Amino acid sequence: MKVNDMKAILKFSTREEAIFGKFDLPRDAFYPMILSLKVGGAWSYSTNDLKSISVMKVFTDYYKESKTGHTIEEVWLLLNPEWVSKEGIVHRLEKCGGKEERSLVTRPYSVTLRAERIIVASISTAKQKIFIKESTEKTVSFSGPSAFYAAHEMEHLDHVEIEGLPMWAFEYEKVKE
After folding, report:
1. What is the mean pLDDT for each group of 10 consecutive residues in the chain (177 residues)?
2. What is the CA radius of gyration of the chain?
3. Hey, is 152 helix, strand or coil?
4. Spatial CB neighbours of 11, under 8 Å, sequence gap ≥ 6
5. What sign results for the dihedral spanned by CA atoms 79, 95, 110, 88?
């Protein structure tokens, strides 16, 4: 690794410590959000006293005239989340953790969760900034892929083994042209 890259990473980590320190929470409460920011995806973390999940919502601002755009990612950190509601059933392929293959699972199409605290990080690729705020709301609804991720991470908090039909149960079929 180049020295300048190492310095930039250390500077970023210092700013990260400073911003997360403003929320009066244990550092480990932010682990799911930090992983979502740095690696992507949704994550969960739990101890005896604390449970937290991160869920991503991704939006695209695209300008047809210039044929350019940028994404805005929102990373929602929910502390001690609980189910409020689930609606619909979607069959989808997922891969989890150490499993080597994807499996066919069912997930709700939309979910509503309640949490003791909700912190949102909005990543603007256009401005190259991460804006962080605490939501005044205690509930949040997700639909589509964000709901799938939330349901998956809630299962982890409940220590439910994520199971489904393995990919090798699928059959190939040649399509006639």
Report:
1. 90 91 93 94 94 95 95 96 98 85 94 98 94 97 96 92 88 93
2. 19
3. helix
4. none
5. negative
How many other C-beta atoms can be found within 10 angstroms of the C-beta atom of residue 42? 23
**Which segments of the chain are extended strands (E)?**
43-46, 51-63, 68-79, 82-87, 90-94, 103-107, 110-114, 117-124, 129-134, 139-143, 165-166
| Phi-psi category of residue 22: left, alpha or beta, with phi > 0 → left and psi -120 to 50 → alpha | alpha
- What distance in Å separates the CA atoms of residue 19 and residue 6, rounded to the nearest whole number? 20
CA distance 117 to 45: 15
Contact between 119 and 151 under an 8 Å Cβ cutoff? The reply is no
3-state secondary structure at position 94: strand
0.85 surpassed by pTM: yes
**From CA 114, how far away is CA 91, in angstroms rounded?**
25
DSSP string, 49-78: S-EEEEEEEEEEEEETTTTEEEEEEEEEEE
